[in-house]
Amino acid sequence: MNLPPKVTDRAFARLEEIGAGAQGKALRVAVEGGGCSGFQYDIKLDAAAEDDLILTHGQEKVVIDEVSLPFLANAVIDFSEELIGARFTIENPNASSSCGCGTSFSM
After folding, report:
1. For the residues of 43-61, what is the DSSP string, one character each?
2. Domains and CATH numbers, the chain
3. From CA 66, how far away is CA 20, in angstroms rounded?
4. Is 24 helix (H, G, I), strand (E, B) or coil?
5. Would you give the DSSP letter of residue 93?
6. Which of 13, 20, 55, 65 makes a 20 to 30 Å CA pair with 49?
Protein backbone atom coordinates (compact mmCIF):
# COMPACT_ATOMS: atom_id res chain seq x y z
CA MET A 1 0.00 0.00 0.00
CA ASN A 2 1.41 3.36 -1.03
CA LEU A 3 1.26 5.91 1.73
CA PRO A 4 2.26 9.57 1.44
CA PRO A 5 5.75 10.43 2.62
CA LYS A 6 6.32 10.98 6.34
CA VAL A 7 8.14 14.06 7.62
CA THR A 8 10.03 13.70 10.89
CA ASP A 9 9.70 16.11 13.80
CA ARG A 10 13.40 16.93 13.31
CA ALA A 11 12.74 18.11 9.73
CA PHE A 12 9.79 20.27 10.81
CA ALA A 13 11.88 21.68 13.68
CA ARG A 14 14.62 22.70 11.23
CA LEU A 15 12.05 24.47 9.03
CA GLU A 16 10.82 26.33 12.09
CA GLU A 17 14.42 27.19 13.06
CA ILE A 18 15.07 28.82 9.69
CA GLY A 19 11.67 30.56 9.73
CA ALA A 20 10.35 29.02 6.51
CA GLY A 21 6.67 29.20 7.49
CA ALA A 22 7.02 32.74 8.83
CA GLN A 23 8.34 33.74 5.38
CA GLY A 24 5.41 32.02 3.64
CA LYS A 25 7.71 29.29 2.30
CA ALA A 26 7.53 25.51 2.39
CA LEU A 27 10.11 22.79 1.85
CA ARG A 28 9.51 21.51 -1.68
CA VAL A 29 10.67 17.95 -2.31
CA ALA A 30 10.58 16.91 -5.98
CA VAL A 31 11.96 14.09 -8.09
CA GLU A 32 13.50 14.89 -11.47
CA GLY A 33 15.19 12.87 -14.17
CA GLY A 34 18.99 13.06 -14.02
CA GLY A 35 21.80 12.46 -11.62
CA CYS A 36 24.22 9.56 -11.77
CA SER A 37 21.54 6.96 -11.00
CA GLY A 38 18.62 8.08 -13.20
CA PHE A 39 16.57 10.24 -10.81
CA GLN A 40 17.56 13.00 -8.44
CA TYR A 41 15.92 14.90 -5.60
CA ASP A 42 15.33 18.62 -5.85
CA ILE A 43 14.89 20.08 -2.37
CA LYS A 44 14.34 23.81 -1.92
CA LEU A 45 12.25 26.44 -0.16
CA ASP A 46 9.30 27.41 -2.34
CA ALA A 47 5.64 28.42 -2.22
CA ALA A 48 2.98 25.72 -2.29
CA ALA A 49 1.02 25.24 -5.51
CA GLU A 50 -2.66 24.32 -5.78
CA ASP A 51 -2.05 20.69 -6.86
CA ASP A 52 0.68 19.92 -4.28
CA LEU A 53 0.35 17.43 -1.47
CA ILE A 54 0.90 19.57 1.63
CA LEU A 55 2.18 18.01 4.86
CA THR A 56 1.96 20.41 7.80
CA HIS A 57 3.08 20.74 11.39
CA GLY A 58 2.14 24.06 12.98
CA GLN A 59 2.86 26.71 10.38
CA GLU A 60 5.63 24.67 8.74
CA LYS A 61 4.89 22.86 5.46
CA VAL A 62 6.48 20.27 3.20
CA VAL A 63 5.04 20.17 -0.32
CA ILE A 64 5.29 17.51 -3.04
CA ASP A 65 4.00 17.88 -6.60
CA GLU A 66 1.70 15.28 -8.19
CA VAL A 67 4.40 13.95 -10.56
CA SER A 68 6.90 13.33 -7.74
CA LEU A 69 4.41 11.78 -5.33
CA PRO A 70 4.53 8.16 -6.67
CA PHE A 71 8.35 8.22 -6.45
CA LEU A 72 8.16 9.31 -2.80
CA ALA A 73 5.41 6.95 -1.57
CA ASN A 74 6.29 5.58 1.89
CA ALA A 75 9.49 7.69 2.03
CA VAL A 76 10.73 9.47 5.16
CA ILE A 77 11.91 13.09 4.90
CA ASP A 78 14.32 13.95 7.70
CA PHE A 79 17.01 16.47 8.65
CA SER A 80 20.54 15.37 9.42
CA GLU A 81 23.26 17.43 11.09
CA GLU A 82 26.79 16.00 11.06
CA LEU A 83 30.34 17.29 11.20
CA ILE A 84 30.49 17.43 7.40
CA GLY A 85 27.30 19.51 7.16
CA ALA A 86 23.58 19.65 7.63
CA ARG A 87 20.92 18.71 5.08
CA PHE A 88 17.45 17.37 4.52
CA THR A 89 17.57 13.66 3.71
CA ILE A 90 15.16 11.19 2.15
CA GLU A 91 14.94 7.53 3.08
CA ASN A 92 13.15 6.11 0.06
CA PRO A 93 12.04 2.44 0.10
CA ASN A 94 11.19 2.72 -3.63
CA ALA A 95 14.82 3.27 -4.64
CA SER A 96 16.54 0.11 -5.83
CA SER A 97 19.94 1.81 -5.60
CA SER A 98 21.36 5.24 -4.84
CA CYS A 99 24.61 7.10 -5.30
CA GLY A 100 27.04 7.86 -2.49
CA CYS A 101 25.86 11.45 -2.05
CA GLY A 102 22.24 10.40 -1.45
CA THR A 103 20.72 12.85 -3.93
CA SER A 104 20.46 10.45 -6.88
CA PHE A 105 18.68 7.10 -7.10
CA SER A 106 17.20 4.50 -9.47
CA MET A 107 13.99 2.52 -9.32
Report:
1. EEEE---TTSEEEEETTEE
2. 6-106 (2.60.300.12)
3. 22
4. coil
5. T
6. 13
Q: What is the pTM of this model?
A: 0.87
Positive or negative, the Cα torsion across 90, 70, 31, 13? Answer: negative
Pairing status of strand 76-82 against strand 6-7:
parallel
| pLDDT, one tens digit for every residue, the chain (107 residues) | 688 999 999 999 999 999 999 999 999 999 988 766 678 889 999 999 999 999 999 999 999 999 999 999 999 999 999 888 899 999 999 876 665 555 656 56
